[in-house]
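Handout, page 2. Input:
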Amino acid sequence: MNIPKLKKGKIDFVLFTTIILLVTIGVVIVGSASYNSALYFQKDGFFFFKKQFAFSILGFIFMIIILNIDYHILKKYNEIIMLMTIVLLLAVFAFPPVNNAQRWIRLGPLTIQPSEIAKYTVVLYMAKSIERKGEKVKSLIYGIFPFLLVSGVYAALVLKEKNLSIASVIMIVTVIILFCSGAKMIHLIGLGSLLVAAGVVFTITEDYRLARLMSFRNPWLDPKKTGYQLIQSLLSLGSGGILGVGFTRSRQKNFMPEPHNDFIFSVIGEELGLIGCIFIITLFIVFVWRGIKVAIKAADVYGSILAIGITSVVGVQALINIAVATGSMPVTGVPLPFISYGGSALLFNMAAMGILLNISRQSNIN
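Output:
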């Protein structure tokens, strides 16, 4: 296999520093948020902390390796990656469901969530295809429909796993990439309307999703069931005040189901206060800013679309997670990138960061 020679330039140091800060904060906060539940269920208060720390080191190694391999090599393996992702998405149905959802492949102590791969697989496909199609992306038939069809297949498989949130992320990122690639606004408005309508249908046809939507309007109507998570999240954020109650001193994490996962932002709010929340949000804003700059300065269209897609995946997930934790949208299971507990999610996110930094290395970022 002939690996293209990498043009060795300087990486975007601001972007690199932001990623490392987010991952480091994530590992530390996972340790604090999970300590009590880990001590009770796993008999080791540092159980989740040690796993997240190990995956962060492995993820960092992945990022550095990918950073030093020309990202254009991904074009050669695009179809293989797409096929393998579909196989993995189907493989989850061979494993027993957890909480009525089939999202994981379990191989001994390792757990893989294929939907985390699917998000980036769609980005890789669109980057290669848009570069090849050029101005045809503005066409409804040759531009919008093929991308909608392919992204829709991956989103449908993820949705079948009972994961509407990640399926929505895939479709939202698809629209963002098409918008940035020059697709006609009238087509995008129509596509957006179609996706909203589909989201409504998928929500009202599942009892648990409809219950979440209704509880979002007033979680105190059912404080012990559908409104429980949001109420605990709001109490946690409110308890933190401006400066927080102090690191490791959160009380609400003892009442919140798996506080180290989807509602970890609430624990940050309680322990580190409004200041801590603003700092985390600022880091994500800086990440998106530098990601956009990488896309603008990319050496080619392929690199530009890759940068847009990778940045969008992280940005959209962060926005949804924080909105859920603050009661700004219905409860949905989207983890906070780099910070929420999850080994496979962290590995794939860090691998994607290697690609993003690789793109910055082959462009002029000032």
